[in-house]
Amino acid sequence: MTGIIVCKETYGTHSLKKDYLKSIDGAIHVVDRSEKLTSISQFFRSVFLPQGYPESVSDDYLQYQLWDTIQAFASSITGTLATEAVLKGVGIGDEMATPLAATITWILKDGTGMLGRILFAWCQGTSLDCDAKRWRLFADILNDCAICLEILAPLSKSYFRLIVCIAGLGKSIVGVAGGATRAALTQHQARRNNMADVSAKDGSQETLVNLAALICGLLLMPVVSGNHGLVWSLFIFFTALHLFANYSAVTAVRMETLNQARLHILVQHYLTSGGEMLAVNRANSQEPVIWKTRRKMKIHLGATLHKIIKRSEDLVTLQDLYRYSGYLLNFKLKSGDIFIVLKQSSSVVDHLKSCIQAEIINMAVECSSKKVQDQVLLNNSQFMTMVKAVNAENSSLLLQESVQLTSKLFPQFFSHLQQTGWVTSHVLLGADEWRSEWDEMRIEDKKMD
Question: In whole angstroms, how far apart are CA 432 and each of 262, 298, 310, 326?
């Protein structure tokens, strides 16, 4: 068809293209310029990928989802093996078993899981946001342990109910940790305020994988049923695959928000490199996803005031030291604790600055127990004064020097954060809810009636 092209149209960055031609008589004709098989690929994109992919999601989306698909398949296969074992344990196929006994076992298993779900959410709910990657991997490791217990349970008739209840407790924790961290990761992946779409498509992908695993399970079960050696061989193989895929998935995630682990890595590198800010990808690749970040000093962000003062003079001293700041920080070298009291009006910048000061103090404490060999640190007179103050147990000098060094480094550090792509509008530093108004609480020497 000939004519004048009056408009060209594309669907996102896909190969769907249309030309609008104006004919001699003025009519508009639509010409499809899409590549062959585009309609088929577009169908699968629309079913299983968020609208606007890949622009509508984070750069790590595809790699994470591929590994997540593999782990979901492996978990479904081992779950099928566990289901058969539990059903045998409650008496399916056993003429001596009673429906009442099976029902009681199932109720105890579910009830234990419900209580565990509530308790775990109460104890660890806040940290699931801050350490989403670590808790995501923890959930999958715990899931494999629970499945292992379920497969073992029928081998011990006397302790079957106890073992099944423990496995149910583990799986309930998996449900809380896995669901919460999945939401946190989905929020990270959604780049167009399309969290619902990303979550829905993730559900579609998982459903497809579970369907494939279900078909494989139907083919496998007649072969492996009753063959304990083959059951354990399959369990070990798919569990190893499941753990490897999960580790690969969480290490593929590149979060731009700052948590305690990533900030620890950034501050240490910044001090030892002479002011170089790690890029998002490099810092994430160093983030521990199995164990918590190890420090000599434990940081308590959002602590209550009585943790850092004993007398009115202590408060006045800290107020003078942190004048115009949105926080007060003090520490206890003997117990290894750093307490940060936040002002009612404290901002994200105050939270970030206080944690950077805490990291600097922690680094000085760690360097005090070993010979400092890093030339950049040796040339930093303020930092070396802090190290000497730790060795001399001079807490007052250590605190003063840390305040001065933080005030000197923070403006440039914050600027470098923004330049390298880190999110500074909000942080995931795990602050507790205590807030103070010390300007209104300035204590003067007076007698109590």
Answer: 19, 14, 21, 15
Sequence-distant (6+) residues with CB within 8 A of 400 are 321
Write down the number of H helices and E strands in the chain: 14, 7
CB 151 within 8 A of CB 235: yes
- Sequence-distant (6+) residues with CB within 8 A of 65 are 202, 205
pLDDT at 361 over 90: yes
Partners of 298 in the β-ladder? 337
Distance CA 104, CA 90 (A): 10
Question: What residues form DSSP beta bridges with 18?
Answer: 9, 32
- Cα-Cα end-to-end distance for the chain: 99
- Rounded CA gap, 304 and 308, in Å? 8
- Residue 180 contacts residue 128 (beta carbons within 8 Å): yes
Other Cβ atoms closer than 10 A to 1: 8
Other Cβ atoms less than 10 A from the Cβ of 88: the count is: 16
More confident: 395 or 13: 395
- In this model, does residue 449 exceed pLDDT 70? no
Q: Tell me the pLDDT band of 448, cut-offs 50, 70 and 90.
A: very low
DSSP for 83-101 reads: HHHHHHHTTTT-TT--HHH
CA dist list (Å): 339 to 155, 431, 442: 51, 11, 19
For residues 235 and 397, what is the distance between their CA atoms, to the nearest angstrom? 58
The residue type found at 274 is: G
Confidence at residue 92, expressed as pLDDT on a 0 to 100 scale: 65
With a pLDDT cut of 90, the percent of the chain lying above it is 55
pTM, two decimals, is: 0.85
Show the beta-strand stretches assigned E in 69-219: none
The model's pLDDT over 191-215, given as tens digits with 9 standing for 90+, comes to 888 989 999 999 999 999 999 999 9
